[in-house]
Amino acid sequence: MNEKYNFIEIEKKWQRKWEADGLFKTPDDTDREKYYILEMFPYPSGKLHMGHVRNYSIGDVASRYLRMKGYNVLHPMGWDAFGLPAENAAIKNGIHPDVWTKENMAEMRSQLKELGLNYDWDREVATCTPEYYKWTQWIFIQFFKHGLAYKKKNPVNFCPSCETVLANEQVVDGVCDRCGTPVGKKDLDQWYLKITDYAGKLLDDIEGLSDWPNKVKVMQQNWIGRSYGAEVQFKIEGSEKLLDIFTTRPDTLFGVTYMVLAPEHPLLSELVSGTEYEAKVEEFKDKLQYLSDIDRTSTTLEKDGLFIGRHAINPLNGALVPIYIANYVLMDYGTGAIMAVPAHDTRDFDFAKKYDIEIIPVIDPHNDEIDLENLSEAFVAEGTMINSGAFDGLSNKEGMKKITEFIEKEGFGKATTNYRLRDWLISRQRYWGTPIPMVYCENCGWQPVPEHELPVLLPTDVKFTGKGESPLTTSESFKETVCPICGEKATREIDTMDTFLDSSWYFLRYADPKNSQRIFDKEKVNYWMPVDQYIGGVEHAILHLLYARFFTKFLYDIGEAPTSEPFKRLLTQGMVLKDGKKMSKSVGNVVSPEEIISKYGADTARLFILFASPPEKELEWSDEGVEGSYRFITRVYRLAQRLYDVVVFTPDDAAMELVSEGDKVLNRALNLAVKKVGADIGERYNFNTAISAIMELVNAINKYRDDDGANAALLKRSVCTLITILSPFTPHVCEEIWAEYGHSTSILDEAWPSYDESALLLDTEEIAVQINGKLKAKLVVPSGVGADELVSLALSDEEVSGLVSGKEIVKKIGVPGRLVNFVVKG
User: Do residues 436 and 191 make contact, with C-beta atoms less than 8 angstroms apart?
Assistant: First the structure.
């Protein structure tokens, strides 16, 4: 065997051979049981970080194990390749986003291969290629045809200095991250997907996701936010217009003493037009454009409002209630208008006190500590209805039902279900994204591009100035087209899609990535879907995972996808920390994967990051831990070298009789390791404890090989099994050892070893003997003895008897299979 431990050269050699042999290619073999394992694909920023290494190593171990278990494993990789950084690079460095992105993809592809990850690169997808985004555009058109895509005005972030629309992440503390100018709002017509039509399905089907982390399911449930209540119409005095509100507490309608509109409400301008309040309202709206939605809904924000000079009419009692606008009501939530019941809502109470608005309690909680005539704070409680006309005396629960029935009967409201989830705004005023395949004709309105003309390609005759609207506006060849209905002159949509659309279906495309005629072949996608195991960061728990579920349900409903849920099992891995903080350039605590690989090799990086912590927990980086992982790999390699003659010259069919106690101990350790590693990878994803079991097996082999009369056949089986079960974690060094042992095929093509349950039971076992909790001796006893018998056997042993001789034994503790502890005095 090779006496040198140049693991880096070993790794390069095997990476070249794996690629040349096409070892990781996955056939569409429908006769075999499939397993689809997938890690969330990365944005091609140009460099891998340790979070990537952790994510992809987890998937790689599981993929290798499952392949050795006989599954037809699909384990692909691709690129979430559209996005703002590429466009910023174009503005800053004068390099086209396509060039910048593809250079980064090439760099990161090379880094992924250096880690030895067993991806089928023949199935690689990149969302920025026309071959891919053609089908993203096709999906959008299907949404449009089914009434689930529409356009409406919406305020966006706008920098007056840069003269450009900004994404939320480009607004830092209310100012433009480029020039520091305060960012305002600008109304633009934008495209939406009607995800709210799927809110009920998305929520109800969460219960069926039994192999998802509960925290992720709760986050999605809260985001969708179903609530039951009533929709009520308030007339506006002196107007034919109506204000629609939703309330979960129709029992408090008699307590409404004012209404609040979002400053963006479409009725507002009409209600104040030509009045003395018009200028003040406009001033108030201008002030709010520099506040983010998060700030406006913060519990710490001082509630600020303005009376607009108009009144609504309470439909239950005819009372006139003043209408205000306020900073804490958003147009995107609910109807953009709320009824305010200050007696029973803290936010409404504070606002009413500030603006001297009447407070009317309508629920009596029968609590002597609450003075209903002189409230010092709002209270939310159950009780009896008061100040509510004909409904007085009812319990408020009964009142909810009766009032809802009344407003439905009278025709000014109805029982309804509301969702916190809003429709998905997908327009982006950017170049580097999927063009929205719509054209506008003065005669025919908005029309989809004919499907046979897809993809609508991104033009190359654009200018990246960082000013104005989208760079697409600078391309005359792109904007001008003809209407597909009437043939007259038409204009293309110049917005591109939110990149979350690209990543909402990529997992389906991997089943058939090169199909130019269809989005994918149904037979292939029927075989591979759903994804059996999905792996990624918990930061994607809501948006990406929710959107992917939405897309899959839609494609299922139109007969394209075979399942209504995309991911059967979900693992959200924890972050990689250093010095207790997330690795970050700004903090200065980044450890580069390249640095670790160049010094220790990829196997060391993989082993450490899988051993240091369970996958779902945060991982604290440790240089000592990396050194320890390297030493362990070196130790395994040295052990394999020392046993070379045993492995090579012992016949495969040599008898493996278990004669000595040492034989039985090693055989038990061997079978125990196979059982535990298989369960920890295949069932629990407890990779750290799987590696611990492998380390224990190494110790057992090292101890046994020094024994006189060691069984060569047992040693051969033990070390070959060790290399096999270690190979998913450290594939390069294990492949090297496997080849040096004379195997002509890859270790990845080996069957995962089986174990003998009966071998896990020993005739005897070793237990610890403690005095006052401190280890003093070890004792071999028959297996399976109980606690009392264990104590008796210990006391009958000459060495143990001498340890307690002359001392008062206060307590005797026997733990079967582990230890005996004597608590003594004297």
Answer: yes
The model's pLDDT over 191-230, given as tens digits with 9 standing for 90+, comes to 999 999 999 999 999 999 999 999 999 999 999 999 999 9
Structure confidence at residue 169 as a pLDDT band (50, 70, 90): low
CA 457 remoteness from chain centre: 31
Please tell me the distance from the alpha carbon of residue 820 to that of residue 799, in angstroms, as a whole number.
14
CA-to-CA distance for 42 and 52, rounded, in angstroms?
8
Q: What is the DSSP string of 627-646?
A: HHHHHHHHHHHHHHHHTHHH
The helix or strand, by DSSP H or E, that contains position 86, with its residue range, turns out to be helix 84-93
Q: What is the phi-psi region of residue 784: left when phi exceeds 0, alpha when psi lies from -120 to 50, beta otherwise?
A: left
Angle between the N-to-C axes of helices 731-740 and 602-611, in degrees from 0 to 180, rounded to the nearest 10: 120
Residue 762: pLDDT band (50, 70, 90) is low
Question: What digits encode the pLDDT tens for the residues 651-708?
Answer: 988 888 888 888 988 999 999 999 999 999 999 899 999 999 999 999 999 999 877 6
Q: Which residues contact 723 (CB under 8 A, 6 or more apart)?
A: 636, 640, 734, 737, 738, 741, 747
Distances (CA, A) of 205 to 211, 226, 543, 553, 566: 13, 13, 16, 10, 12
| Residue 552 identity | T
Closest listed residue to residue 254, CA positions, set 313, 346, 316, 312: 316
Of 178, 169, 183, 221, the residue nearest 199 (C-alpha): 221
Mean pLDDT, rounded, for 369-374: 92
β partners of residue 387: none
User: Are 783 and 804 a contacting pair, CB within 8 Å?
Assistant: no
Residues, the chain, total? 826
pTM value > 0.85 = yes
**Torsion over CA: 114, 117, 122, 125 (sign):** negative
For residue 413, the cross-strand partners are: 232
pLDDT at 111: 97
Q: How many CB atoms lie within 10 A of CB 213?
A: 15
| Number of C-beta neighbours around residue 374 at 10 A | 7
- What does the alpha-carbon distance between residue 221 and residue 228 come to, in Å, rounded to a whole number? 14
Task: Identify the weakest region by mean pLDDT among 74-78, 190-194, 803-807.
Answer: 803-807
In the block, tokens 């918990």 appear at 538
Please, is 258 exposed, middle or buried when counting C-beta atoms within 10 Å of its C-beta (0-12, 13-18, 19+)?
Answer: buried
Beta-carbon contacts of 798 under 8 Å, excluding residues fewer than 6 positions away, are: none
Bond preceding residue 435 cis, omega within 30 of 0: no
Distance of alpha carbon 617 from alpha carbon 573, whole angstroms: 7
- Per-residue pLDDT tens digits for 567-615: 999 999 999 999 898 888 778 888 999 999 999 999 999 999 999 999 9
HEC profile of 160-217 = CCCCEEECHHHEECCEECCCCCECEEEEEEEEEECHHHHHHHHHHHHHHCCECCHHHH
Q: CA triplet 101, 102, 104: central angle to 5 degrees?
A: 65
pLDDT at residue 2 is higher than 50: no
Long-range pairs, 741-750, Cβ under 8 A, ≥24: 741/640, 741/644, 741/647, 741/648, 742/648, 746/18, 746/21, 746/23, 747/723, 748/23, 748/64, 748/67, 748/68, 748/118, 750/68, 750/724
115 touches 14 (CB < 8 A):
no
pLDDT tens digits for range 19-31: 999 999 999 999 9
Q: Give the pLDDT band (50/70/90) at residue 335.
A: confident
Order across the sheet with 480-482: list the strands. Answer: 445-448, 438-441, 489-492, 480-482
Rounded Cα gap, residues 538 and 553, in angstroms: 22
SS3 label, residue 554: helix
Given this model, what pLDDT does residue 129 score? 98
Task: Say whether 340 sits in a helix, a strand or coil.
Answer: strand
Nearest CA among 624, 629, 621 for reference residue 600: 629
